[in-house]
Task: structure prediction
Amino acid sequence: MACLRAIRQLRGPSPFAAFGPVIVIDCARPGTTVPGQAEAPSSRLLLMRRAGDEHPMRRTQHARALPALIAAGLLACGSPSWAQTQAKATGVPDIPFESVPNFLKLPPNLYLGEGIGVATNSKGHVFVYTRSGDTRLFEFDRNGAFVREIGQGLYGFEFAHAVRVDAADNIWAVDEGTNMVIKFGPDGRVAMVLGRRPEAVEGLVAAPPNAPAPAPEPYVFNRPTDVGWDAAGNIFVTDGYGNSRVVKFDKNGRFVKEAGSRGSARGQLNLPHTMAVDAAGNVYVGDRGNVRVQVFDNDLNVKAIYDTVGNPWAVCISPGPHQYLFVSNSLPDNGLAQYRDITGEIYKLELDGTIVGKFGKGGKRLGEFSTVHEIDCRNPDELLVSEITAWRVQKILLKPALATVSGK
Result:
């Protein structure tokens, strides 16, 4: 569904000439409907830079802000829109659980924004990637006490999407706004970057009407979403909102291969939103728009599809000799009430797709889930979940479930 009609820069006489150059994002969503609501109307977003503001610092701030403003406009009206789906699985046992209140302790005058990413390292330290006034990456100790901020003011931070920690305790941030995947060493220093932030000075050029999308480039992402690794250190990136693919790089960041294109056939992807890699090197991709998890082997050939646990917003695979797959059929962040009672739960599965159980429901109270965006399952009985619309991270303690059902 194409809704982006035009992106152009207006110059010369216009009602907004006093503000200098104006970016216009003109959108329409033909045929986009929600039960009980009319078709979404056309909309126009104006992004303006005030003329005459020549202070060097202000110019820098505007240059940094412009891609984020444009990204916000594209997110508002240029992205495909899907309804969240009630999971097909029935008769799934509920897993008893409890939520630890007030787990994270922030210092005075420091706040979380949207809970976008959460991960832990081998010491139990917690890393939270949050969208706030700026995208920020915080570290907490195993008891939830604040330790430090990593990458403050980093050029690669603009619109957080995921954070993961690899086997060597390197911290990886996936930034949808800058089209970058950034590796930090345990000391918090940048050790590798994949992708490149679009330069604000280049502006945006509107594609001709009905023009086919350009082929993805090996090292250029289009709103990437997640990252993972196999035992050999090969890097896998889901890419993402724009490119509908999963990409494999070697441990040094050299392109190996890719798989996927936009569509609903086996091996195609429609918003690969999340991913995880098991001990055998298989890659589990949350194909959110297609309401399924697709399992690829290490060479990115499709092995299996699990399509009974709803739209996967977040997936995680626990370590250890007996691995589990967690999948969140998250309550959407659009606030539509009709999804509240049919989504929000998290499923626990065996790696073959057999469902062990489920827990949670949509809501904002302690122990309810308000748009889970990432899960950390380093300990499969002690999870951390980040939530977009509740601006928090919950620590969840699971208790044993009793039975299993097939998830295939």
